Every structure is written in C-alpha cells, then in structure tokens.
Amino acid sequence: MIFLFKIGFLDVSWVDLVDIGLVSILLFQVYKLIRGSIAVNIFLGILALYLMYLIVLAAQMELLATILGQFMGVGVIAMIVLFQPEIRKFLLVIGRGTEFRENFLKTIGNWKSDYNDDFDVQQIIDASKTLKASKTGALIVFSRDTELKFYAETGDPVDAEVSKRLLLTIFNKTTPLHDGAVIIYKGRIKAARCVLPVSENDHLPAHFGLRHRAAVGMSENTDTLVLAISEETGRLILARNGKYLRALKLKQVEHKILQYLHNQEPANWEEVEEEEEVSDLTPAK
Ligand SMILES: Nc1ncnc2c1ncn2[C@@H]1O[C@H](COP(=O)(O)OP(=O)(O)OP(=O)(O)O)[C@@H](O)[C@H]1O
C-alpha cells in the first residue's frame, strides 16, 4: 500500500481518498433524494432518538436504555420500512445506468446530455392553457426513464402520441377517462385514469385537494415530474421530489418540463428563471 501522507497516527493512502470521495458522492445522492421530503423529518426523528439513547446509556438509566435499545436493535429493519420510497428511488437511480452516469458526470464536471425523444411539449402547454381557462381538473405525470407500469396498470392503457386534442378529450369532465392521472413516457400518453399515491405531508396547504396531494405524493415516491390543474380554481402546480411550484407562467412550466426531460434541472429545483431567459431556451412555436 502506498501512503500519501500522515495525519497524527493515521496513514492516508490513495484508496482512502477514493473511499472518502465515493462516500461523499453517495451521501450527496441520498441527500438529493430526501431533500424537502417528509423523509427528512423521519430521519431527524430517528437521529433524536439515537442521541437520546446515547445520553441515557451514558447516564446509566437502565430501564430507559433497555427500552430505547429495543428500538435501536430493529433500527435497520425500521429504516428499510420507513424509507422504502427513498430506497426504491435510490435503487432505481443506480439501476438506470444512464442516469447514474449522468448524475455522476454532472457532479464532477457539469456534463450535460442531449434528450433525443421527439416530444412536442408545446402540446402540453397549449392543453394546460385551455384546461386552466376552463377550470378543468388535470393530473399529468412525466416519466423520463421508466414506463411506470405499476401505476399505469391502475388505469387504462392508451399508448398514443401526446397531443393537445387528446389531452383535452381525456380530461373532459364528461368522459369516463377524466378521473385520475395521465402518464406520459417518451412522448406518448401511456395510460389514463391512473391512481397515484397521496402525499401524507402535513405541511401542504389546507386548500390542496386530493388531486394536488396525489401530484406531490407521486413526486415523493417516484423520479417523476407531475403537473396538476385544479378543478376549482384552475391553478396549476408542478411537483418534483415532494416539493411543488405554483403561480408559474406557462413559459416557465414549459421550461421546467424541458429541464426535467433533458435531465438538466438546477440543484435548487425551486429556483425559477425570469420569463425573458426562459423564452430564449424555448422558442415560441
Ligand atoms: N390518488 C389519486 N390519484 C389520481 N387521481 C386522483 C387521486 N386523488 C384524486 N384524484 C383526482 O382528483 C379529482 C378531484 O379530487 P378532489 O375532489 O379531492 O380534489 P379537489 O379538491 O377538486 O382538488 P383540485 O382543486 O385540485 O381539483 C378526482 O376526481 C380524481 O380525478
């Protein structure tokens, strides 16, 4: 083993540096996954419990230490159960070689990829404009890398090219398909009438109906971008990783969708560029 340098009694080698680098990247990916979601609160709860356990142990309070020790004993299993959605998302990221590679390369070199799927996002924007104006409720899930079969199977298969007319027909209140969510993958509407997981986040505004909670819930559980339009107010939100943006201009919505599809999202997703800058990137059609 070739040692690089010494810190006190510690010999630091190349392997140690690579080890620290990889752990940092891993922790950063985990942080990105749970940032802003309810998992952060759970994690802080577990941390508080663990600190309490250490204090109780040091103070030799045997009864409390035994009770807390029981919790700590099943800690790993409890973590797997509690963080199941985050673990799923993390494994999905690793499993999708391309995205992991992109994330990795982006982290070290701000490298960006080209999105090759032919997908006219303007159709979504035009449909959203009409849906907002007519106060027609809508729920649209964009998936970049997976077909989301599990969720698609809760609805009816469609498999048609994305078009404004088709979206307006699906969400028309008089059609049997209008209930639930539409899933869009690789420029195609894969399914309609899909049931999404509802967010249990207590911090969501009280006026959020089930549709908006489902949008946030889906974004917490999967690596998707979800658009919801309220039936009551015509308001639109975009949800991603358990966070949501509202009061966006349609140009900004288009920009966010393109950023997501091109895998070019900023580290702080909630940052929204001014409209002038947005229009440079998404020329009017
Ligand atoms: N878990 C879910 N998955 C998919 N779609 C859902 C889910 N929950 C609700 N929806 C859709 O949202 C529609 C409206 O739900 P609800 O009446 O609770 O919301 P709302 O208060 O009208 O919300 P909004 O103002 O956002 O339209 C439902 O008819 C259904 O189409």
Task: Summarize the structure in words.
Catalyzes the condensation of 2 ATP molecules into cyclic di-AMP (c-di-AMP), a second messenger used to regulate differing processes in different bacteria. This is Diadenylate cyclase. Its EC number is 2.7.7.85. This protein has 285 residues and is of the alpha+beta class. The protein folds into two domains: 3-97, no CATH class; 114-281, 3-Layer(aba) Sandwich (YojJ-like (1), CATH 3.40.1700.10. The protein is 50% helix and 17% strand. The protein has twelve helices and nine strands. It has helices at 14-34, 38-58, 62-73, 75-82, 84-95, 97-109, 121-133, 149-152, 164-171, 210-221, 250-261, 275-281, and strands spanning 3-7, 10-13, 138-143, 156-161, 181-185, 188-194, 224-229, 236-240, 243-246. The chain has a seven-stranded mixed sheet with strand order 4-6-5-3-7-8-9, with helices on both faces. A two-stranded antiparallel sheet has the order 1-2. β8 and β9 form a beta hairpin. The radius of gyration is 23 Å and the shape is elongated. 26% of the residues are buried. The site of adenosine-5'-triphosphate has 16 residues, from α10.
